[in-house]
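G.,

No rush on this.
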Amino acid sequence: MTTPLPPKGTVLASLDAIQDPGGYPTEFEDLPIIVVRSADIVRAYINVCPHAGRPLSLPSGKMLISKGEHIVCPFHGASFAVETGACTGGPAGNAGLKPIPVRVENDQVVVA
C-alpha cells in the first residue's frame, strides 16, 4: 500500500528554509517529499527519481538545481523542470516527477 499524499493545509517547509534556487527534502509519514524554489516558483514533488527509484536529494539533504530551472538526479543525471516536474533530459525518458500541489501562506509552504 502506498502512503497517501499529505492532506490540504499540511505545512511542508518554511519558505526561508529553502535556498533560492534550491530544494528542501522533507517527508509526510513515510512519503519522501522535496520542496523546490526558484524565484517566485515553489513546487513540491515526491522525492523519488522515476528512472532510478532513488531520492533526488543527497544524504546530506542537498539537491542539485541547475540554473534554477532543473532538478538533477545525483545518481544518473536525469533532469526535471522545477516548474512542472517534466523530464527534460537523461535516462528518465518521458517519466516526470509526481507533483504535490502547494501554495505559500504566511511564509510557509503548505499543501493546497
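When you get to it, here's the other one too:
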Amino acid sequence: MLEKKHGITTPLEGIPAKPWDPTASIAAPLSLHAPTVLPAWVDYNGHMSESCYLLVFGDNSDAFFRFIGIDESYRDQGGHSLYTVETHIHHVKEVAQGEKLRLDFQLIDHDDKRVHIFHTMTHDATGDILATAEQMLVHVDMAQGRAVAMPAYLQDRLQAIAKAHASLPAPKNLGKPMGIRRKAP
C-alpha cells in the first residue's frame, strides 16, 4: 500500500506507467480517464465545483504522463517531471454528482521542453461537452528548478502522438482570449 505523504493525490498515483509499444496505434484523440463525479466535488449549487474541473483535468494530464512514461519512478530516478505553467478552462455545462465523465486528450504541439495540450470533458451518457482546458506544460529539472530538455525517447513518443493527432481539427476554444465582447457603437 502506498503511504500518503501529501494532501492531493491522483487516481493513478503509485501505478507505474505501462511500457511504451512503438508499434501500437495511437488513438486520436486519446481517451485515458473516465471518472464519476464524486460527492466531494459537488458544491452548494448542486453541481461540480469549478475547482474540481481543474482537478479532473489534472488527473487526465496524469493519465497522459503515464501513457508516455512519466510516473513516480521517472521523477525519483531522474529528478524530472512535467509541470503545468498555464491553464485556460472553459466551463460549458453543469454536471451533477454520480454522473460519469469522459475526457479526451489532444496533443496540440511540443518541442524539446514544452508540451501544449487540450482536454475535452464530456458527459458520458449524453455526449454533451461540459468543459475544455488548454494547458502548457514544461519539462523541469526539479533540483535546479528550471526547464530542461526531455530525453530523446519522450520526444519520440510525443512525436508519434503528434503524428496521430495531426488529422484532428483544432479545438474550438484553442487559444481563445478572455475578454468582454462589445458591440461597435
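The chain is about 20% helix and 30% strand. The domain at 30-165 is CATH 3.10.129.10 (Thiol Ester Dehydrase; Chain A).

Enjoy the weekend,
O.
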